[in-house]
Amino acid sequence: MIKQIFGKIPRKPSKSSHNDSNGDGGFNDNLPLNSSYGLNSSTPLKPNSVSSKSSNSGSGGSRFGNGTSAQNSTNQAKKSASTIVTPVGPVMAPVVYEALPSFRDVPSSEKQNLFIRKLNMCCVVFDFNDPVKHLKEKDIKRQTLLELVDYVSSVNSKFNEVAMQEMTKMVAANLFRALPSSNHDGKFAEIGEPEEEETVLDPAWPHLQIVYEFLLRFVASQETDAKLAKRYIDHSFVLRLLDLFDSEDQRERDYLKTILHRIYGKFMVHRPFIRKAINNIFYQFIFETEKHSGIAELLEILGSIINGFALPLKEEHKLFLVRALIPLHKPKCVSIYHQQLSYCIALFVEKDVKLADTVIRGLLKYWPITNSAKEVMFLGELEEVLEATQAAEFQRCVIPLFRQIARCLNSSHFQVAERALFLWNNDHIRNLILQNCKVILPIIFPALEKNIRGHWNQAVQSLTLNVRKIFSDADQALFDECLMRFQEDEIKQRETQEKRESIWKQLEDFAASKALSNEAVLVSRFVSSVTIASSANQLATAGN
Q1: How many other C-beta atoms can be found within 10 angstroms of the C-beta atom of residue 99?
Q2: pTM of the predicted structure, to 2 decimals
Q3: Which of 269, 483, 496, 516 is 20 to 30 Å apart from 297, CA to CA?
């Protein structure tokens, strides 16, 4: 009874509703957005009550006057305003929640106040875990959000400070939340793919999607003054936005990717901070958790950022390459974001060819040993880097590089050996190899000969013969020298093996002769051949 009595008493309008300086109105549909009521979403927004924009344009073309107060609103607006809850934080169950009048139903002078009140109304957050709870209120909020999106898209005057403050407050109340998770601590499979589990989608997405669209249009709007908006889209706001990249919902990450890119482009003052914050996310992912859902999207944003770096590159950017991008090859789940990562790496090499040596040595540092699928990816990325590498940088890393390539050539996994042999199909790389033939051929010649003589895969043998012929045609004298050296090494290895077997035979015979006397004889196959030989001589002398 008491609640009903208090509910009939009109509440005092919020302070923000009295401040209507420089209100906004009108239309501008030429926003350079990548989405239209739903960015990359399988459930596009379908505005019902706000679908006819033309009806708004007639009454909303003029600017709002100064000095407008809540007393000038219509009776219906007063009644609705008295029922709106304006929470400090998200409210899960409002007592009364009724729709406010549409923008086209109020005079132009009242639209500023109505916009603020609608924003405050949408700060109420409902519980979507119960699908049958607050159905009417949820639908009212959805329609109100769609009206706000339409309003922000159609204004032709600058947003004032009060509007920006209320917009960011509404966005924060709806978006900044604890993310749902299926099994985010689950381990990754050996080849780097996450274990197959159903992705948990936030049940509140029907509202979240519209809020993301609202934020995107607000940031991208030509009527948003960056100098004023930076007070509200500040470092704290950006950090909380970056935290949402860990969402398992691909739709949400797509929105975040577009919004963060727009923020980076519009707010130049935030650029160093955004790069540093992304850096810290990478550090935590690489060296602590190896679990994050949004690494690919962050790298995609960075690809665009790196592409815009001025030349010569700053030392800060080079450190970012060395300390963050190259170590991203370490986690087992690198296959999830490898395409975006290799693109960023290639951009650095294209901008500064001197970085090729650093990148190649970084790849060799994190080169996989037992993961063949990852090794194939590394070889593909290596080809992209070598394609942008000049002769001087190539010569600096040629020895460790082709030692690794030689190991790949002899891999029992045919895809690894085949991918390594494909390097010779690239004209630029083949020219670099032939220019340094005297250094490279002695390193890889034994691997080529072993493949021809004993690799199980016929395609690998055929490709190896082609590579062998390239070297033979390029420098026959060097090829013959390498062949002779290889044959000599084979003879030496055979002699060493025979000597080792002879020594073991002596030890076994000596052990057998002592077996009758029950005397213990320790024979270890982990002892070096030199030690075995000396021990055998000593034992033979003692026996004599």
Answers
A1: 18
A2: 0.74
A3: 269
